[in-house]
Amino acid sequence: MKRIWLALLLWGLAALAGAQTAIPPFQQRVTDLTHTLSAREQWQLSDQLQLLEERKGSQVVVLIVAQTLPETIEQYSLRVAESWKLGRKGVDDGVLILVVKNDHKARIEVGYGLEGTLTDVACSQIIRERMAPALQDGRWAEGIQQGVTQVTTLINGGPLPTHPPSPTHAASALVTASAVAAVQPDAATSTSSLGLHPFFMFVLIACCILASFKFRRWVCRTVMSVASLGASLLIGQALTASILQVALVLVICVILQSARFWAVIVWILERTEFTSGNDSVRGSADDGRGKGGGFGGGGASG
Amino acid sequence: MKRYLLLVFALALVLSGCGYNTLQAEDEAVSAAWSEVLNQYQRRADLVPNLVNTVKGYAAHEKDVLLEVTAARTQVGSVPASPDLIKDDARFGQYQQAQAGMTQALSHLMVVAERYPDLKASNNFRDLAAQLEGTENRITVARNRYIKAVQAFNTTVRSFPSNLTANATGLKAKPNFAVQNEQKLGEAPKVEFGAKQ
Q1: Looking at residue B117, which CATH number applies to its domain?
Q2: In this complex, is the C-beta atom of B178 within 8 Å of any C-beta atom belonging to chain A?
Q3: Is some CB atom of chain A closer than 8 A to the CB atom of B137?
Q4: Which residue of A has its CA nearest to B6?
Q5: Are B150 and B174 in contact (CB under 8 A)?
Q6: In angstroms, rounded to a whole number, what is the distance separating the alpha carbons of residues B40 and B46?
Q7: ipTM, 2 dp
Q8: Labelling B49: which of A11, A53, A245, B94 has CA 20 to 30 A away?
Q9: CA-based torsion, B128, A76, A160, B34: positive or negative
Q10: How many CB contacts within 8 angstroms connect chain A with chain B?
Q11: Residue A245 sits in the same domain as residue A201
Q12: What is the pLDDT of residues A36-76, one digit of tens each?
């Protein structure tokens, strides 16, 4: 009986740990998951925020959710701000105004670059004096409008690093940025998912190449493939994966030992002029928007 | 010529596979995360004198809690906050303990402040409370980031083949925040607070 309870408890804990409130995809400056604001109010707010972004470059967005459980409002807002990568790259001037409807709570999450302008004291004042009274009464639109206006006023008056505003539509750039961020982790982990550690493969190949100065090439290659097959099976790889692995190692080895490959490399090296003429292309592809995300927990909630 | 090229190429492959660069990058990430932790703790310590003075103005007879905060501040000051702390397990523990004591003392102070409406209504106290709250939140964020950075570093230091490189270059696993310690520290003052009421 005890075991069943324990299992149930563990299952409950696991379910709790897994069930974080989801982060909505970033699509526009005002994201209302609770359908509290009318279309007109949303449009007005995002218009105001777009104007600010065009003038000052800082990216302020609004998110309304029903609840953030099991996390606190601070944990959730930081997670959202980081995943949306608000603000400009290097300037980190993003601001997230988060309203949690069930708790009647709000938080202003401030990026590193604006911590001097939107200090904790200023943010807590905005929430306490402007937003909270309306939010407590359920006048959502008014409270959020007040918060946005106050934050905008502070940013407009504050000394901000000025970048020329980019002509492209910021929202679309942001979506691509977050899509890229979602893809990157996969690419990073793919090197280790080869099965064997790349280091081991390199050692094998190097040994094979060095040994082939002394012995016949195909003898070395056979020894090496047997060794790598054994190693992959030993660490619990599937047979097909191990054989693919061996094939990969063999192909690399054959390529490295062929005279034609090196002739091609030398030919390429001889013909290449080492100049950096492609910088302008890279510069135009990266307009630096929606790639900030430098948040350190600044801001206030209430 | 071809043979030499081959050797150079093989050597480069072996070096890039041994994890030296990863170790260096992660070591640097841990140092940066630790500096941020120190930075935020310092920010909190700087708030204390003002906070104590403000509370004193409205609740001078709450000597116990004011003394506790002052003592905790002295304790924090006695462990020099240097980046080298993460190289010394004992001093790292001391620093952690001092900071946890500070957290406790400050939370007591805020609880006591709740009983004084005049104090709570004063602008000065409100601003300081907002700053303290923000700083505590930043400390939490900085600590979480440090924990993650150390986790990544320690994993690299302990797994093959980068552990060989780590051994050769003298890099050791770094201390992380101990949860047990925190819990112990969190329990004791709760009893004290219950007795007071």
Answers
A1: 1.20.1440.20
A2: no
A3: yes
A4: A256
A5: yes
A6: 10
A7: 0.74
A8: B94
A9: positive
A10: 74
A11: yes
A12: 999 999 999 999 999 999 998 899 999 999 998 888 899 99
**Among B6, B18, B130, beta carbon nearest to A120:** B130
Q: Is B15 within 8 Å of chain A by CB?
A: no
What is the total count of domains within chain A? 2
Neighbours of A263 (CB within 10 A): 11
Q: Is A121 on the interface with B (CB under 8 A)?
A: yes
As a whole number, the mean pLDDT across chain A is: 76
- A180, two tokens: 């890229």
Alpha-carbon distance of B58 to B113, in angstroms, equals 9
Q: What is the pLDDT of residues B123-158, one digit of tens each?
A: 999 999 999 999 999 999 999 999 999 999 999 999
**Domain span holding position A199:** 192-270
Is B14–A203 a contact, with Cβ atoms under 8 angstroms apart?
Answer: yes
Q: Per the domain annotation, does A33 fall within a domain?
A: yes
Give how many domains chain B has, as a whole number: 1
Length of chain A: 302
Asked if the structure places residue B18 within a domain, the reply is no
Write the CATH number for A30.
3.10.310.50
Residue A290 Ramachandran class (φ > 0 left, ψ -120 to 50 alpha, else beta): left
For residue A213, list chain B residues with Cβ-Cβ distance below 8 A.
3
Residues A296, B36: C-beta atoms closer than 8 Å: yes
Q: Which residues of A touch B131 (CB under 8 A)?
A: 120-121
Residue reference for tokens 């994966």? A241
Residues 73-112 of B with CB under 8 A from A: none
Residue A196 CB contacts under 8 Å (≥ 6 apart), including other chains: A228, A231, A232, A235, A237, A245
Out of A121, A198, A209, closest to residue B131 by CB? A121
In three-state secondary structure terms, A26 is coil
